[in-house]
Amino acid sequence: MILYLVQILNFDFPGINLFTYLSFRAGCAIITSLLIVLLIGPKFIKSMLIKQGNGQPIREDGPKSHLHSKKGTPSMGGLLILSSFLISTLIWGDIFNSFMWIVILSTILFGLIGYIDDRKKIKDQNPKGISSKNKFLLQILSSFILIFLISLQSSSELVYSISIPFVNGVFFLGLILYYCFTSFVIVGTSNAVNLTDGLDGLAIVPIMIAIASFGLITYLSGNLVFSEYLGINYIPYSGELSILCCALLGSCLGFLWFNAPPAMIFMGDTGSLSLGAILGSIAVITKHELVLIVIGGIFVLEAMSVIIQVFSYRVFGKRVFKMAPIHHHFEKKGWSESTIVIRFWIISFVLAIIGLATLKIR
């Protein structure tokens, strides 16, 4: 919005050109979303406490300590994250950028699915929410809409193709395989982030690390000089997504203020499903789907632990982990919550460095 106003009003005073620079607007986006969350956060949390009463229901089959330490904590903090993120993005982003609106649409679609799920959990005081089948179908349908819109914006050389780390060029999949793969990326990331969100502060920092990494990737992919130098795909106009990434980074940073142990509020499915979808959508736009698997390795680990646990129990009648997702396994082994959270943060940081290293090693 600010960029549009500067362009049409043609202001002429020193420093006005700063508002046309991606780096300046990105910094402003972080500060704006951070301040919004910090300013409205206390009132929002108080409002959720009053409206939700007993707060988010806690799994009875989970760690027993959660039934006492987390009982009564309000949920749906994702509304706080997403509202500040959208406001900051619309203020500092290019409102005529198609990629920006596609990611915003992913935020709305998956955020709405999570919101419906959270509302049902709180209303029924049942941690199951809407059925997994219905949730999964809605996610797949939403991902197909996003993939279709992304394909319309892709160049003829890149459409229906993916890039492979350490290799120049792209690998053509064809329409059907491309839709299946990219839908798996978006839906898989959304659910993997949701599974990770099980301890205070556990999911939000890896999300911040991943979104910061993709903020850099979008900036480089949208710059012809940098993309040619690094040997990555040049995606025209994708650089504007760095504004969006920074807006989300600021929102998540502000939310961490209230979500740090002991959490005053949980992000809920409203937040986790939408944040995962944002990451997946940006990865598809920039052709860095496989790099996301590395950068978001913690989310992959959490999702795989659930898949392995279910498969092993149904086929062999035995559990591989004491409890899934894997962060609960470590709780059962006696690790403190803060130890698990901080060690997962460290792993996320290391994986992000490895993932970003693939940009240069081609």
Summarize the helices and strands and which ones pair or pack.
Layout: H1 2-9, H2 22-52, H3 66-69, H4 78-92, H5 98-124, H6 132-153, E1 161-163, E2 170-172, H7 175-196, H8 204-221, H9 224-230, H10 241-259, H11 268-285, H12 289-295, H13 297-316, H14 326-332, H15 337-357
Antiparallel strand pairs: 1-2
Would you mind describing this structure in some detail?
- The chain is mainly α.
- It has one domain.
- Helices cover 68% and strands 2% of the residues.
- A two-stranded antiparallel ribbon has the order 1-2.
- Helix 5 (98-124) runs antiparallel to helix 11, helix 6 (132-153) runs parallel beside helix 11 (268-285) and helix 11 (268-285) crosses helix 12.
- The longest helix has 31 residues, at 22-52.
- The two termini are 37 Å apart.
Helix % is 55-70%
Q: How far do the termini sit from each other?
A: 37 Å
Low-confidence residue ranges? none
Number of extended strands = 2
Considering the chains and any ligands shown, give keywords for the structure.
362 residues, mainly alpha, 15 helices, 2% strand
